[in-house]
């Protein structure tokens, strides 16, 4: 099984547009972070009720028998003890920043972030600016960002400014690291920029259960013949982390991607829609088996997955904001034209992805890889993110 990070032809598959990525990531965080705050019983505002109490009174009572008065009191005491006594147990194989460790110990909301976007998404200093902006969005919503990477052979969760700068300046010199690469990077004491699968795994080692990213990998076109399937999908099938993303790009085979996730036992749900989003657009033509419409719905889903011990991840897909969908549609249209041309010219296998990416770049006049360094425009789209 091939990994999306294995070949240079797929270096920028997830990050063609440096403007779209932070916009989408910020929107996902804005739309979803409340759920984890509720789950941690540490709501960012006094008006928000802890979801555990909400779950006991509404959802789980339909699944589990109502607890006795004694067991309810015991449960409340247990929850109280969890807040008074730190429950975070350090993993000797992972270096956790002081800020993230304290947040985990106190039951605060922590959001995992990947580092591939820093090293393989765009050049310096735009990559550093984007990383800082994404972390700022997390903080502005009352959560603690936990950017993940491997530095000098040590898996790190929560990076300092110096560490972020190091990754940003090294850029492509840092190996794109999926789950399969973690052991070798650690053994050779090298640097690794974590993808979805590696970030999920490392986050799970320290008890972080929510991870936000732009788009997931999937089954590539003709994957039924080439077995070119992203390790993101198998990781979702074995690591209990909720992944919030904008879906998968239509350059992938989305129907087969969803079929593969079903085989892996992964619950795929969409936020506020019945259709799985295709990153740049709200719709992919594929229905989802589960829909959630509120942060509380997301919290219930995560809670149920944890209580039942399913040992699989969750994929929560949040579509692009409607006000930004038109620009996404332009790129989506170019993708479809490029795919059609590749089919007409019988371009398949390893040559297909680089051809499609090159063609999309040509059709959009470079918009799919445009680097927007305008501070004014950056403020504009982040204002849109925060008001979504």
Oligomeric form: single chain
Largest sheet: 6 strands, mixed
Helical content band = 40-55%
- Structural class designation: alpha/beta
Distance between the termini: 38 Å
Overall pLDDT? 78
Question: Any overview of this molecule?
Answer:
The chain is of the alpha/beta class and 388 residues long. Helix content is 45%, strand content 11%. It has helices spanning 20-39, 51-57, 69-84, 98-105, 116-120, 126-140, 161-170, 182-187, 196-205, 223-226, 231-236, 254-263, 295-307, 325-344, 352-363, 375-387, and strands at 95-96, 110-113, 144-151, 154-157, 175-177, 192-194, 210-212, 242-245, 267-271, 290-292, 314-317. The strands form two sheets. Strands 1, 2, 3, 4, 5 and 6 form a six-stranded mixed sheet that branches. A five-stranded parallel sheet has the order 7-8-11-9-10, with helices on both faces. A hairpin with a 2-residue loop joins strand 3 (144-151) and strand 4 (154-157). Helix 1 (20-39) packs parallel to helix 6 (126-140), helix 1 packs across helix 13 (295-307) and helix 14 packs across helix 15 (352-363). The two termini are 38 Å apart.
